[in-house]
Amino acid sequence: MSNSSIARSFLIAFVFTCVSCSNVESQEEFDHDLVQILIEENRALGLSNRISSFISPSCEHCHYQTQALLSDHDKKPAGLRLAFIADVHPDSLKVFASKFEYDTATTAFIWDEEGKLAREMGVTSYPTMFLYDTAGVHLQTIVGEAKPGYVYKFFHDTE
Question: Thioredoxin-like fold domain location, by residue (predicted)?
Answer without folding.
Answer: 53-148
